[in-house]
Amino acid sequence: MQSENTTSENAASKKTNGQTPAVTDFGIQRIYVKDLSFESPSAPDIFREPIQPSTDIELNVKTNRLADDIFEVEVLVTVTTKADKKVAFLVEVHQAGIFNIKGFNDAQLHRMLGSYCPNILFPYVREAITDLVVRGGFPPFYLTPVNFDALYEQQMLKQQQGQSQKQTPEQSQQGHPQGQPPQGQAESQKD
User: Fold this and answer.
1) CATH class given for the domain over 26-167+180-189
2) What does R_g of the chain's alpha carbons equal in angstroms?
């Protein structure tokens, strides 16, 4: 499946204060499943008894620069549902996309990779997980929508607090944190 979505600003038509603004460009080259697995180690016995399930969800975001303005963003979700300490099912989905991202400053790029791109990928993750769970013989399981903007902000706040504890006051006044977008974001859900 190939999807394309491109947004550009025409620098020639927009001038402010005599300066030409930078041209920004965002596009989706491809969205794809990188890894997919479903396990039901307690089947068929799990289907013969009433269960009170509990569910744990792990959510992570990974990024990889493929070329100057081309990035792979991957949303990794693992759902583990247990009943009486037995694993009813375990689903793992790695949904990825290749994105063209050009003309953004470092802070904007960081936010695009850590929030905007995962927001695009997450509906595909939700669909894959629901489909796998139903095909595994269980009632539909719907992941709650995730606010990647809020998770990104929380991660940035944690990084800033960690940096300010390690730096002198004047060093902590310097700009935004650099590096990869937030990773290790997790949520847990009990049914």
Assistant:
1) alpha beta
2) 21
